[in-house]
Amino acid sequence: MKIAFIGLGNMGGGMAANLVRAGHEVRAFDLAEAALAHARDQGCAAFATAREAVAGVDAVVSMLPNGRIVSAVYGEEVIGHAPKGALLIDCSTIDVATAREVAQKAQDAGYRMVDAPVSGGIAAAAGGTLTFMVGGSDANFAEAEAILGKMGKAVIHAGGSGAGQAAKACNNMLLGIHMIGTCEAFALAGRLGLGPQTFYDIASVSSGQCWSMTSYCPLPGVGPQSPADRGYEGGFAAALMLKDLKLAMEAAASAGSKVPMGERATELYQAFADAGNGGVDFSAITKTL
Predict the structure, then answer these.
(1) How buried is 281 (Cβ within 10 angstroms: 0-12 exposed, 13-18 middle, 19+ buried)?
(2) pLDDT tens digits, residue range 203-218?
(3) Domains defined for the chain, CATH in brackets
(4) What is the pTM of this model?
(5) For residue 280, what are the contacts with CB-CB under 8 A and spacing of at least 6?
(6) Which residues are catalytically annotated?
């Protein structure tokens, strides 16, 4: 299958490489020359513009920074330039409203499209173990699943257009809340005289167990290796967590839903990023405690 991949950053680069390894012909585009060079090294064909990359393809996959860019790329570079038979798959994390608007524009122009944001981070993108939350029709999901399955361990149909983004917003709001709670619990345990490993050994097999503790522990030397063991480098940047929390707050406001814990997590990550920590892993918020 001939697939255009637009957006080759930390996540997209690994995802595109996995499509190449799966035997697909990948036509890559990114504004950054370094990202394009890396894609070429991974076996992708690099193009100077998105319009050139989408010419003659069977599918388009995108991994872009925000909804404004997604809307512009699909509106100006993909729709009307990719073949009408191409399936459009946007893996960016954006707001629900924009995801639905872009999907409607694609549908009106004769394309099929799904939103398919991911969970898993840079290591999972490179390793092909992402989780995809997919919004779109049953037929479009079935077609997208065959492509997404080459880049992830789980591909889940969340519902109609925008449902993938809704699932991602709720999931990452929960993750942000859990991580802060995990950091608070370790900090309190330490002040009460419990060593971090001792507390981990107890809580990881008790009712306080959560992913932020047992898979992504915010303290170095405790649990499986995590960004905490690398000086909080790599992983999932605090600025990206803040972006996702803000998207969740927008979604909550539009749905008339009260999310006081989500609001507080957003405030704490905003302060953390404003203090110059946006580039470190989001688990580094433990340093504020």
Answers:
(1) buried
(2) 999 999 999 999 999 9
(3) 2-159 (3.40.50.720), 166-288 (1.10.1040.10)
(4) 0.93
(5) 232, 233, 237, 238
(6) 168
